[in-house]
Amino acid sequence: MLNNKLKFYNNNGFIIFKNIIPKKLIINFKKDVFFASKKLYLKYTKKCKPRVFSFSSNNFDQYLLLARKENLNIVTRSVYDLCKKITSVYQIITHKKVQYLIKQIMQTNFPAVLYRGISVRIDFPGDKYYKARLHTDYHSQLGSQNGLVMYVSVKKVTTKMGPVILYNKSHLFGVHDVTVNLQKVKKGLTYDPYYVNISEEKLNSYKKSKLLIDEGDIGFFNMNLLHESGYNSTKNKIRWAIVIRYFDLNCPTALATDFKGGQHEGNIYSFKNGKISNQHR
Question: 0.85 cut: is pTM over it?
């Protein structure tokens, strides 16, 4: 069965594994988010009598929704940053099933996590600014072309929540060319400086798949697979995912850049003809 899944991954660039992460670990993550966001919300809200909730697995992010409604950006930003530090995230990514699957999918005995390659997606209802446009993780993360993105769902993803849209088989093209526009980032128009150079005709030639995964499921996809966020059209549902990027220390492209990471390590590059062409500061 695993061989069939690996064959599917190699052909299509992604694969989904169901019920991998134990519920207890997901609950631990939700509790961390709940109690941290509660502390921050109560610290910064200007309401005289703020609402107080008890923890619930289904509504662990209620304080974040309130913070968003009250434009308490310091709360949402702080929780986003905190999620990269809490131990419950590391309990998930070091789980023995996860480690086994990573080695099998990447076909390496030497996988590594990119420095600052650990993050979360917190896609709020109606948010367009942080909606991830078309990209591949290799451009922004580097590491190695034999790289893997792991999406761990901590909440059931529905179509209205704007699931990740994957472009099947686009990883087979290799490294897509990108241009970099840091001016738009500096002007606050976007958080992402990368723009993939691909024609609409070529993009439409790829079949699209939506990453509709449930709590405890994992979606793996190739670092060169084109993908983007859908639009969250719900009124009060955040789309959550723990996102980890792995690279292969045995891969020549990792050694060629001295095992460097990308944007979060201050390394921003343009790509032309599938190769690094220019560094931006």
Answer: yes
